[in-house]
Amino acid sequence: MEKPIPCVNPQLLTVIVNCGLGTKVVRLAKTAGITRATTIIGHGTIHNRVLEFFELSEVRKEIVIMLAGQTEIDAALTILKKELHLEKPYHGIGFTVAVSSFLGLIDRECIINKPTQGEVNMYNVIFIIADKGKAEEAMSAATEAGAKGGTIINARGSGINETMKVFNIEIEPEKEILLIVAKDDICDNIIAAVNEKLEIEQPGKGIIFVQKVDRIVGIKE
User: Fold this and answer.
1) pLDDT value at position 32?
2) Which of 119, 124, 127, 155 is deepest in the core (most CB within 10 A)?
3) Fold identical between 5-111 and 123-211?
4) pLDDT profile of the chain (221 residues), mean per 10
5) Are the C-beta atoms of 191 and 208 separated by less than 8 Å?
6) Distant-in-sequence, close-in-space partners of 55: CB < 8 Å, separation ≥ 6
7) Could you tell me where the beta strands, DSSP code E, fall in the chain?
8) CATH topology assigned to domain 123-211
């Protein structure tokens, strides 16, 4: 068996683009040395009065998730920003989070170097998992607390508080995952607003967790 290729300082790169562009994201990332990617269908929220008038405020999205070393991720971000024009509004967003270890990439060897002193983190990605139909309510509360927008992904949950029986058959209810990228200074306000709206602290109501974002492109101030 060949020796695994070093994967130095692995990171998870998430790129959110309009539906139909996911394949292009994967192709561009491949030129940077990233050989594996997973694409998920979701929909984004755009708060624009004109679009809302014509009922066009919801846009189908593709969320591309890639795992690779820091060198490959850096190269991919540079290429994606240039080719997808991520500096322009509504062209997409990309962000990275650090990975401490991984399984499943049998041809890669995980190597973690000690972190160097860098810029102070300014952004977080907030994950909100709730019953189907609740993500829009969560997004509305988050917007009032300062969030600029979010992406909703359909999912399915399973848990002791989340199943019901129909004719003695356990049915797992559908879930929605809402991803919101927000600055540090409004993150707590968003979490508090969503918690109050959805009563997340009550059993079976949902889950909220937050991850620090290492780097991000596509965010407009």
Assistant:
1) 92
2) 124
3) yes
4) 72 90 93 87 64 50 88 93 87 86 64 58 85 90 91 66 51 76 91 91 83 83 60
5) yes
6) none
7) 5-8, 11-18, 37-45, 58-68, 93-98, 108-111, 123-131, 151-156, 164-166, 169-171, 174-183, 207-212, 215-217
8) Alpha-Beta Plaits (3.30.70)
- Domain boundaries of the chain, sorted by first residue: 5-111, 123-211
CA distance 149 to 45: 6
Question: According to the CATH classification, is domain 5-111 in 3.30.450.20?
Answer: no
Q: How many residues does the chain have?
A: 221
Q: Which residues contact 158 (CB under 8 A, 6 or more apart)?
A: 172
For residues 197-216, one letter each, b for 16 or more C-beta atoms within 10 angstroms of the residue's C-beta and e for the rest, the string is bbebeeeebbebebeebbbb
Helix (H) or strand (E) holding 107: none
Rounded to two decimals, the pTM is 0.72
CB 148 within 8 A of CB 186: no
Rounded Cα distance between 206 and 135, Å, is 10
Are residues 207 and 129 in contact, defined by beta-carbon separation less than 8 angstroms? yes
